């Protein structure tokens, strides 16, 4: 599987959702698509699924433009919260339709997963709770086994048990039927361990594309006495530095690839790892953070 964006621009009226996205993804991998609200993640996924046409630039899936392509729509599926199905169809009939559309759809897997999650196949989609709707959508997406499977904020609204089961299902499925799986979202707990690569979009462009483990290893949180934290951070790229208790500070620092932070003992400095969520949020945080709002207000700005 390969998915390429070349200088892709997407406008919605005056809003520029993507402003020159270039990104090349290849191979059967689980890839995390991360970014702040409005970064362009859903737009990029909809372009890859052929649901939208780029305003400029090129998107290609398996060497073909996905927009209006029957071949690409049989090979890609985008699962998202806004997915709608004909209201007159029961869930079982929706699965029959999906089986007709996607050559690799596994009807038995879909049925067993719905049974496991207690979702009756004679229910209507519209009758399901938010978490159940998202569970059904995800089951449909997983069972379709399309070579490019995309999930946009798939775990929203699910309880912890369903969430952890679905994360395991994703992993089992990926191992038994390798494909390119793109997962976008903000609630990364439990999911981030699945990522082999991460892509960070920011303001409609690519900010970062890297091996997920290498990316995570580059971030470290240090805390301790203010002067010690400031000294330790002075040689590194500091993404977030703030005071915690009186006289104490904390910083998230990003190291250059292949380097490690040297910690001297006995000066009260502690270092801990940074979650992927905290890392990308720190990387894309506006200068000054939320404190800036209050200092600006106090300064009459
Ligand atoms: N159909 C639309 N009409 C108008 N503007 C849109 C539309 N879809 C997206 N946008 C705008 O494009 C920008 C990118 O939106 P997009 O949904 O791709 O971001 P996102 O990274 O998925 O955000 P989130 O994490 O909040 O879901 C936003 O400014 C959004 O308001």
From TrEMBL:
InterPro entries: AAA+_ATPase, ABC_transporter-like_ATP-bd, ABC_Transporter_VariousFunc, P-loop_NTPase
Record-linked PANTHER family: ABC TRANSPORTER ATP-BINDING PROTEIN ALBC-RELATED
Superkingdom assignment: Bacteria
Keyword Metal-binding tagged: no
PROSITE patterns: ABC_TRANSPORTER_2
Any Pfam family: ABC_tran
A single MF term (Gene Ontology): ATP binding
Protein name stated in the entry: ABC transporter ATP-binding protein
Domain ABC transporter: 3-228
SMART domains (UniProt xref): AAA (SM00382)
Protein keywords: ATP-binding, Nucleotide-binding, Transport
């Amino acid at each position: 599987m390969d998915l390429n964006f070349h200088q892709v621009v997407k406008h919605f009226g005056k809003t520029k959702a993507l402003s020159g996205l270039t990104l090349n993804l290849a191979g059967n991998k689980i890839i995390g698509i991360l970014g702040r609200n409005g970064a362009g993640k859903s737009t990029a996924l909809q372009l890859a699924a052929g649901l939208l046409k780029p305003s400029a630039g090129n998107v290609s899936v398996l060497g073909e433009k996905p927009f209006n392509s029957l071949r690409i729509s049989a090979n890609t599926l985008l699962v998202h919260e806004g997915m709608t199905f004909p209201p007159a169809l029961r869930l079982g009939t929706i699965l029959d339709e999906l089986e007709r559309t996607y050559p690799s759809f596994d009807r038995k897997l879909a049925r067993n997963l719905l049974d496991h999650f207690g979702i009756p196949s004679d229910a209507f989609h519209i009758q399901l709770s938010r978490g159940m709707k998202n569970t059904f959508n995800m089951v449909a997406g997983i069972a379709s086994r399309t070579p490019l499977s995309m999930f946009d904020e798939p775990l929203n609204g699910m309880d912890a048990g369903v969430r952890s089961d679905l994360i395991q299902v994703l992993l089992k499925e990926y191992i038994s039927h390798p494909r390119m799986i793109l997962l976008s979202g903000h609630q990364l707990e439990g999911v981030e361990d699945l990522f082999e690569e991460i892509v960070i979009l920011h303001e409609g462009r690519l900010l970062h594309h890297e091996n997920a483990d290498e990316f995570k290893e580059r971030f470290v949180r240090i805390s301790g006495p203010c002067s010690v934290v400031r000294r330790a951070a002075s040689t590194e790229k500091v993404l977030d530095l703030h005071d915690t208790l009186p006289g104490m500070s904390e910083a998230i620092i990003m190291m250059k690839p292949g380097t490690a932070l040297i910690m001297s003992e006995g000066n009260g400095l502690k270092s801990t790892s940074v979650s992927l969520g905290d890392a990308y949020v720190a990387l894309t945080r506006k200068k000054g953070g939320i404190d800036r709002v209050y200092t600006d207000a106090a300064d009459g700005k």
